[in-house]
From TrEMBL:
Residue spans of biased composition, Polar residues class: 50-64
Highest taxon listed in the record's lineage: Eukaryota
Keywords in alphabetical order: Repeat
Per-repeat ranges for PPR: 175-209, 245-279, 280-314, 315-349, 350-384, 385-419, 454-488, 489-523, 524-558, 559-593, 594-628, 629-663, 664-698, 699-733, 734-768, 769-803, 804-838
Lineage: Eukaryota, Viridiplantae, Streptophyta, Embryophyta, Tracheophyta
Identification of the protein by name: Pentatricopeptide repeat-containing protein
SUPFAM superfamilies listed in its UniProt record: HCP-like (SSF81901)
Length: 860
């Protein structure tokens, strides 16, 4: 077929005809055979040779050169008797079927006559005549393009049907080319729906569209997100044995890639390969892209190797995609190999490849290699972009390399790249985790000033404040956030609810929850779980389950976190047996208990003193395939010590060692405290030394346990040495530590040293509680220091701490011992005035002047 589709201009009047859809109205009353009539053209044959070129088809200008049908009208302008019925026009066209130029001239002439009957059939006959000659196929193409230019006119189905019918009726050779040219015209006119109808009708009458035109139509459909229709058209061709060529494979694979249907893209590739289609590098590249999106870096890398074996050089984009897929799947060895292969193929490295490699290093925890690659970017002629900086800042912040993160942040600004909210939020999280809140606050204020701070940054600060109990500061930030137009989302509200729950302000937490609902901010499962946990911590089981039921009514499915919250909450309020029942119910609903679940139940049973049941649950978790962790063993060890079963406590400790579970500081603390309370300071000291050997640092609780243990054995020297070590290591003493030291020193008669510790405690801002005061008064009374006792009582009054029954019993016994009966009875009356009820020991002291069975005062 000639390629010069538009080689012949269409006469002006003919062109106007095809821009007006009226000229192609459908007429069906045509006889089955050529019509013979006395038309003007029969009497006056068209003058001139029939071999004129298309450029010579313009009507003659002189009357001598005009055809008879034109000359007749020129000489008799009032005559309109020329027969231009559709039958006559078709008959005249058919009489010139071997002279397509004459047929076209006649059709052009007839169109200008008022009596011309315009029909689809006459046009179809003309098209068949023009397609009969190689020289006039270009005119046919032009006529088709112009005929479908508008939106009106015959439908594609009618057009194809009449074209087919006319071809058969008038014995034209049914050349599929004219039908394909019609299909292509619809596509070129951007009438894609009509092109689809034309395509389907052609297939229906067994005139198959040419593969190139099919490919063009498929491409057009896919660009319009009509991939389903594209696959249907292709399937119809496949049913008739036409699969297409490699371009078809490209088109269909790209459609699959667009819809993320990688498996289907691979199917088209494999089927084409099995049929013997010579697939090119483009097909391989598309398939590689499909595997990169899965991602399946192994297969993608193998396809790159196959391309190289065939002598093809993958594109820069293909290398980039495969490197990214390898990094995503953690295959850094292959990613680096591809990077080297890319360079050896002469493909330039780009920022995407290098940034992906940096991220791969960072994910592996190798930020130093990522930074080395960053500093080599200049050597590759590549400049870091915003994503490059974002990746490095994020991972340096995650790993605690805040100096490097800040250096990159400042460098980013220096090269003119404005940090966005993602970068600043990454840096903010790192500062909150590894630096001070003041550093984080400074960065946050900078983000607010430059307009980068968004709701995510506000949420980061809000959560940080609420998580550490700084609710007042969080409330101030909340007000500022609202004032700047930031709209709180579910994370904002959940963070604030968490803060109020942490400090037990459940009314405020519930108020925020109600406000969320009123503002159409839908709580998520985390919000509900926080509220439930808050109510459980307050011992309000009923309200906790109200929240749970509200969540279920809102069609929010509980997560494992929710189930564990309920189970842990019930154990916390002393309803462990109920928690076990709930666990069985949740398991039936599909919940899979984990170590945390069992730990809650074991800890709850131990607090309730039911060690047998705790051991039963422990065996149950082991049999269920859930491995106990250090928390499990620590709870059991603590429980055995509390039930005075030191043998089983050591058994648990040995079992931990056999299973390779390392003791943490809490586990060591439980063991040391248990042996100290059992007065086995040899074992306690061995554990203390072991703790130091494994690289752990004793905390205040462990030092206090050791100090109390030695003091209980009246070994004040060892206790004081431990206190000195605490001070040297910068570990602060708390109220319990000071109370234990004061008690031991007073019992040992070291009043001055005890007094010094008491003053030291006060100087550090540690306020004595009733236990401390009871210890002081008891020790002073036992040493006959009633004068100093009076000062302690005055100090208690100044701090609004009222003496309890134990203190009054100690004071009464002390005055009886000194023979001051009047003061002893006065203290009894004072007890009554304060609303305290004397116990049996009080009356025993008053009656006998001493406590039965001991020569020491109460609390000694």
């Amino acid at each position: 077929m000639r390629s010069s589709i538009s080689s012949s201009p269409i006469p002006p009047l003919l062109r106007r005809s095809f821009f007006n859809p009226r000229y192609l109205c459908h007429q069906s009353a045509i006889s089955d055979k050529p019509i013979i009539s006395d038309s003007p053209i029969s009497e006056n044959p068209i003058a001139g040779p029939t071999t004129k070129s298309p450029n010579e088809l313009t009507p003659p200008s002189s009357s001598a050169e005009k055809p008879a049908y034109e000359l007749h009208l020129h000489q008799n302008p009032s005559s309109e008797s020329t027969d231009l019925s559709h039958a006559h026009v078709i008959n005249t066209l058919l009489s010139h079927r071997n002279d397509p130029f004459s047929a076209l001239r006649y059709f052009n002439w007839a169109e200008r006559r008022r009596g011309f009957v315009r029909s689809v059939d006459s046009f179809c006959v003309l098209l068949h005549i023009l397609m009969g000659s190689v020289e006039t196929r270009g005119q046919a193409q032009n006529l088709l393009c112009r005929s479908v230019f508008g939106d009106s006119g015959p439908s594609p189905i009618v057009f194809v049907d009449r074209l087919f019918d006319c071809g058969k009726r008038f014995d034209f050779e049914l050349d599929s080319q004219v039908f394909n040219l019609l299909l292509n015209s619809y596509i070129r006119a951007n009438r894609i729906r009509d092109a689809v109808h034309c395509f389907n009708k052609m297939v229906e009458i067994e005139i198959l569209p040419w593969v190139p035109f099919m490919n063009i139509l498929l491409t057009a459909l896919i660009r319009r997100n009509m991939s389903g229709e594209a696959r249907e058209l292709h399937d119809k061709m496949v049913l008739r044995g036409v699969f297409g060529d490699r371009v078809t494979v490209h088109v269909l694979m790209r459609a699959c890639l667009k819809e993320e249907r990688g498996e289907e893209a691979e199917k088209y590739f494999r089927e084409a390969k099995d049929r013997g289609v010579e697939l090119d590098a483009a097909a391989y590249s598309i398939l590689i892209q499909a595997f990169c999106k899965k991602p399946n870096s192994r297969v993608a890398s193998e396809l790159v190797k196959e391309m190289r074996d065939r002598g093809w050089v993958p594109s820069e984009g293909t290398f980039t995609s495969v490197v990214g897929a390898c990094v995503k799947q953690g295959n850094m060895v292959e990613a680096l190999k591809l990077k080297d292969d890319m360079v050896s193929c002469g493909k330039p490295l780009n920022a995407v490849v290098l940034t992906n490699l940096m991220k791969g290093y960072c994910v592996q925890g190798n930020t130093s290699s990522a930074l080395d690659l960053f500093y080599k970017m200049d050597q590759y002629g590549v400049s870091p972009n915003k994503i490059t900086y974002a990746v490095l800042i994020e991972w340096c912040s995650k790993s605690g390399e805040m100096e490097k993160a800040y250096e990159l942040y400042n460098q980013m600004k220096h090269v003119g790249i404005q940090p966005n909210s993602y970068v600043m939020n990454s840096l903010l999280r790192g500062l909150l985790k590894f630096r001070t809140f003041e550093d984080a606050s400074k960065l946050f204020n900078e983000a607010v000033e430059c307009g980068v701070a968004n709701i995510f940054m506000y949420n980061t600060i809000l959560y940080s404040l609420c998580n550490v109990g700084k609710v007042n500061e969080a409330c101030a930030l909340w007000d500022s956030m609202i004032g700047k137009g930031a709209v709180p989302n579910v994370i904002s509200y959940s963070s604030m609810i968490l803060g109020h729950c942490r400090r037990g302000a459940m009314d405020m937490a519930h108020h925020l929850f109600t406000e969320m609902l009123e503002r159409s901010v839908k709580p998520d499962v985390f919000t509900y779980s926080i509220l439930m946990d808050g109510y459980f911590k307050k011992g309000d089981k009923e309200r906790a389950f109200e929240i749970f039921n509200h969540m279920m009514a809102a069609n929010i499915a509980p997560t494992d976190f929710t189930y564990n919250t309920v189970i842990n909450g019930l154990c916390r309020v002393g309803r462990t047996s109920e928690a076990r029942d709930m666990l069985m119910k949740y398991v039936e609903m599909g919940f899979v208990p984990v170590c945390l679940t069992y730990n809650s139940i074991i800890n709850g049973l131990i607090k309730e003193g039911d060690m047998n049941s705790a051991l039963a649950v422990y065996r149950e978790m082991c049999e269920g395939g859930v491995s106990p962790n250090v928390v499990t063993y620590t709870s059991l060890i603590d429980g055995f010590f509390k039930s005075n079963n030191m043998t089983l406590a050591l058994t648990m400790r040995n079992e931990m060692k056999n299973k390779g579970i390392e003791l943490d500081i809490t586990a060591y603390g439980a063991l040391i405290d248990g042996f100290c309370k059992g007065l086995d300071m040899v074992t306690a000291s061995e554990l203390f030394s072991e703790l130091l050997e494994v690289g752990l640092s004793p905390n205040t609780t462990i030092y206090t346990s050791m100090i109390c243990g030695f003091l209980n054995l009246r070994n004040t020297e060892a206790a004081l040495r431990l206190h000195g070590r605490m001070s040297d290591e910068g570990i602060p003493c708390d109220l319990i530590t000071y109370t234990a030291l004061i008690d031991g020193l007073l019992k040992d008669g070291k009043l001055v040293v005890a007094s010094d510790f008491y003053l030291e405690m006060l100087s550090k801002g540690i306020v004595p509680d009733i236990v401390t005061y009871t210890t002081l008064i008891n020790g002073l009374c036992n040493r006959g220091q009633l004068g100093n006792v009076r000062k302690v009582l005055e100090d208690m009054d100044g701090k609004n701490v009222a003496p309890n029954v134990l203190i009054y019993n100690t004071l009464i016994a002390g005055h009886f011992k000194e023979g001051n009966m009047q003061e002893a009875f006065r203290l009894h009356d004072e007890m009554l005035d304060r609303g305290l009820v004397p116990d049996d020991k009080t009356y025993d002291i008053l009656l006998n002047g001493k406590l039965k069975g001991t020569s020491e005062l109460p609390g000694a």
